[in-house]
């Protein structure tokens, strides 16, 4: 375990240094949700009515979760890039903990994400979003958000190690932008046709977005929703537990196997 | 006194789908020596390195690296080896210094910063040390890659085509480093398509062809297998039989006569045959000599002869890994 902690910290340091050396990429990934907040908030906001909340107050937690789901893309791209560049091969010939590479990568990603929520929430405050519940609830919301990000990065790392191809990972990663569209990240699911509504409410993004809205006190839990949305905090924790239980072992095993 | 082998493999096999990349590879590399694994594209060289460095698991066969079983004691093997592949394996988003410090930490080297600085200096990278490695030239990347392999002196160093596509300065630096390392007791297994490289560095050569070792020996032994080619040109055709007689006697092999050029050639198995001796003997026999030459065999000759010349090699095109 101490090997894992030591090597994991070294790998975490590597990812943070990479982020620091590449500030352009970091700024770009932070700009995206902010521009979506302004664009959606003012364009859709005038047309959409959300029960019990203003649209921008509803949108801020939704975009936080949609951005966290982008961890699938980030994890996939970074892992595929490491395989492609031969970094994974070198690490695999070192006498280090095998799990340390994905663990360090996921931990670093969570730290970068945490830092990224600060400017986003400042813009959120500027457009009228507020913590309307308790401070403890707000802390719980952020913790849940980061836990969800952590789970998403593991999905991505597994897929990246599986595809091993930077370009394919980029293409597939683009598709992950579609996932929040079929969830309650941007719109209330109550207005959707029955079949679509069920799919959207079983999308983990919906459970986490609803949980954040409840914990921040931004919008009430919708009536008559599927179980994970009707019990959003328990539902979100359950989703994270399931995703981690599946993808942590898969990613670690795939890392150990390498190619061939 | 028995020889200790740093690398000892028996019957290593690896398949990728329908491609039988290794068909029973037997290698024995004595401690502290340089073994050159030489072979055409697709012979299985890279696959062999990937197996021997624990990156791939063999389908059959076994190997011991520095005394440890490749499969059952993979962690112990990893503590004793280092690899520099033909594709560089450094992080382009980190600087050269950051790369080396990271690998030093992962190797549990005390004073990672000092070690990194010393290696940067040794590999001529001090000036570029704090720039992202993605901006390095091919030669610089390869040097940084090799430096990363030498964070801790490995017992066995695997170099997969270390100088393919490199400028002469980087190539010479890498050759010097290999010689230094063997001087300190490291065993080096290097694959190459450059016969000159194997000739200069290797104590022993394993010629690999179609997934097997076709021939092993020192460069001199392999050359002796092919022999020295002697050729003389005489002033008129009447002297050809006399010249052929002398060559027959000196080389012990049947001379071939080229009447159009008034030339006679033969292959000398005896490596001690010298040009003055050849010329004096022909002169004493009254042969009107116009030209005489002895061409020692190159490893190219060995290579072509032992692999039946069934391939043409294209450097920089050796992607024999699984598709």
TrEMBL record, chain B:
The keyword Transport applies. It is a peripheral membrane protein. This is ATP-binding cassette domain-containing protein. Residues 7-235 form the ABC transporter domain. PANTHER family: ABC TRANSPORTER ATP-BINDING PROTEIN, DOXORUBICIN RESISTANCE ATP-BINDING PROTEIN DRRA. It comes from Streptomyces edwardsiae. It is found in: Cell membrane. Keywords: Antibiotic resistance, ATP-binding, Cell membrane, Membrane, Nucleotide-binding, Translocase, Transport. Signal peptide: none annotated. The keyword Cell division does not apply.
